[in-house]
Predict the structure.
Amino acid sequence: MKKTVFSIAAASMLASSLSAGAITLYQDTETGAIYTKPGDGRVELGDFVSAKEQYVENQTALSKVSKKLGVKVKAKVPTLKFSGKHYLGYLYSDDKTAANEDTSKFETRRNYFQVKAYWNKHDYMRITLDTYQNAANDWAVRLKYAYIFLSDVLPHTGVEFGQAHRSWIDWEEHHGWWYRSISKTFIEDKHAADMTNSADIGINFKTKTPYFSSEVGVYNGEGYHGKAQGNSMSYEWRLTYNVLGTGKQKVHMDDEYLDLSFTGQYEDKNYYKADPYGNDFSKKQWWGLHAVYNRPEFLIAGMYVDASNSTYNKGKGCGTGYSVNGEFRPAPKWSILGRYDYWKTENSADAGSYADMEKTQYIAGVAYKYNKNVKFIGNITSYDDKINAAKADNYMFTAEVNW
């Protein structure tokens, strides 16, 4: 509404200033000379104003209107893009262990606020803030992303530098598992592989061609909420064969795509969670294979992960596992979704006291796309996590909001 009022007011001021300072000019038909007064043989050319004077008057008028209608936003770049993402929900947890009680609570699981500052069409600086509940149960703000993106630093390749996306998770969230609002991806979920998180400080090279896309990065390794120590770097990658030639485009649920990916991480000394040998660091080495096929009517995806050479998290991360998820879209705006996760630690010293233990998790739900900004999801998540001594059936309702 303000933009409409602003346009009308500016046009009115412009019209009044034109009529007030205009000069009528005439041209002699024989000589071409210009006059300010009519006469014999002279043709009226129209009303004219001084360009310099008109510019000053217009800027003054627009300034007055701006002060009346709102706050002026100034930046050292031509374009600022603001956006937000919110996961708002309710959870009832039917706990199956003797150690915990059932819980019933409303939740705000994610509150992202994001700004991108573009100095041209493709290059920008991004900052993303997120809220979380700290150990004192106060709501605090955490820095999720803060990186510069430069396009085409290499052929078909851009780069993120700073607190950036890690090489796998963001890609899976926008291709294979669209429901982070109810569960993290298999590789990061606590009741699944639980091997990594989505952001870290480092550099990430992102290549896009029709039939091949990739992300290859070097990071501190401890993640965006872990303390980086030592001099060991984490080497992480995603290599994807985009079978149907969709590697350069941003895909949506109603697109058809088929992708085969090889992903992983290699780091000798990760200081985020210790190993079973009493060291303050652990070895984090894993690789995975992922496949996804999507059509407007359905999606099916699967992943296998091998972390049998890791000592991460006192041995909890020393294992192998897989995940399968699918989605059926029977009617416009409606989706039926499901997922199964399985993880088992190795029967070896690298797994410590967690050797030869299992986790299983089932997710089933229904989603409704209310509009382009809001999606509602109802789901049941059931897990039996012997590694973390946790077992429960969770009944969840979620409003996923994007703006």
User: Anything to note?
Assistant: Residues 2-69 form one domain. Residues 1-19 have pLDDT under 50 and may be disordered. The two ends are 18 Å apart (CA to CA).
